[in-house]
Amino acid sequence: MHQKVRNPTGVRTLVPACMAAVAYIDPGNFGVNVESGASYGYALAWVVIAASIVGMVVQYLAAKLGAATGLSLAENCRERCSGPVRVQLWLVTELVVIMTDLAELVGGAFALNILFGVPLLVGAVIVGAVSFVVLAIRVRGHEGFEVLVLALLAMVVIAVLWQTVIAGVDLDRLATEIAPGPMEPSAALLAAGIVGATVMPHALHFQSAVCRPVPVVTAAGAHGKGVGRDGGSASIARDLRRSVVIAMSVVGLANVAIVLAAAVLPESASGDLAAAYAAFGDVAGHGAAVLFALALLASGLASTVVGAYTGQVVMQGFLRRSYTVWVRRVVSLAPPLVLLALGLNATQALVLSQVVLSFAAPTSLIPLVLFTRRRAVMGDLVNRPLTTWVAGAATVLIIALNAYVLLALV
C-alpha cells in the first residue's frame, strides 16, 4: 500500500525531520555518551556539540536531495555512481544498518534487563517483536506510526533532561573542562563513537527518503520527480532548514544532557550500562536511575522501528529490489541476535558499533556533498558554496579523526 506525501512545506517538513532525529538519540548515543561522561567528565561534551552541528548540516543536505530529485540518497547513488562504486557503497551501508540494529536491540534489551530482570537475549527478541508490531501499523498506512515514534522521542528527551536536572551539573567544572583540547587514544576512540552516533549515516538515507515529494513505499518501490526545479524552491529550502535545525537542536540538547548527567558518575560506571544505572541510583537517587532506564527503553523501541524502515529504503535504493519489510527485518535482526547469543560484552559492542558508524560515515557523506553541490542534480536547491565548504570540511575532519583512531589502535 502506498502513502502519498505532499511537497514538503511548513510544518509538513518538521515531522520527517523529527522522525530522522530519532536516530540521533538511540541507545548507541546512550552508550558512548554515558561512557564519555563517566570516564572524562565534561571534557568530551564539546565533541557532542560539534557533531550535532555537523548532523544539522548533513541532514539538511539529505532533506534537500530528496526534495530536489524525488530519490533517496541510495537511489541517487544507484543512478549516478559506477557499478563497482555502487556495490561498495551498498555493502558499507548494509554494515551501517546492522550496526544500528545491534545498538538498538542491545539498548532496549539492557533497559528491559535493568527494569524487569529480563535476560538480554530475550529482551532483544522482545524489542525486535515490538518493532514488527509498529511496522505493521506503518505498512497498513495508519497515522499512528508517526505519532507513536514521535511520542517515544518526546519521552526520551524529557526523561534525559529531567534526569540531568536531578543529577545536577557542576557549572564551574563544566566551564573548565568543556574547552576542546588534545585527546589521548581512548578519548579519541570515544570521540569517534560520538561522531558515529551523532552524524549517523543511516539517518541520511532515511531523511532523503521521507522528504521525497512522491509516493513513499513500505514494501514495494516507487519513483517520481522532485520539486527542486519548480517554483517555491527558496521557500522549500527555508522550511527544510528550519525543521532540521529545530529537530536536531532538541536531540543535540538531549545528547549533551546525557554526558552532563553521566559526569557525576564514578569512572567505575563506564563501560557497563547496568553499572551506570546502579550508579545513578547511588549518586542521584532512584528517580534518576529509573528515568535513565525508561529513556533507554524508549530510544531502543523508537530507533529500531526507524532503522527497519531505513533498511528497506537502502535495499530498494541500491538494488531496485522490493523484498517485503518482514523478510528484510528478519535478515537485519539476525546478526545482532547471534552476537548476543554468543555472549559478547553488550555495552562494549554498543560503543564499538558507533565507532564503526564513524568509519562508515564518509561513504554516505561524500556522495551526499557531491550530489547536492551540482545544479544539474539539485536545480534551484543546489548548495551555496559556503554550505558545500562546511559539509566538505566536516567530512575531512571525520576522516582525519578516524585515521587518528586507527593509527592509535594499530
UniProtKB/TrEMBL annotation:
Pfam families: Nramp. The keyword Disulfide bond does not apply. It is found in: Membrane. InterPro entries: NRAMP_fam (IPR001046). It comes from the Bacteria. PANTHER family: NATURAL RESISTANCE-ASSOCIATED MACROPHAGE PROTEIN 2 (PTHR11706:SF33), SOLUTE CARRIER PROTEIN FAMILY 11 MEMBER (PTHR11706). This is Manganese transport protein. It comes from Flexivirga oryzae.
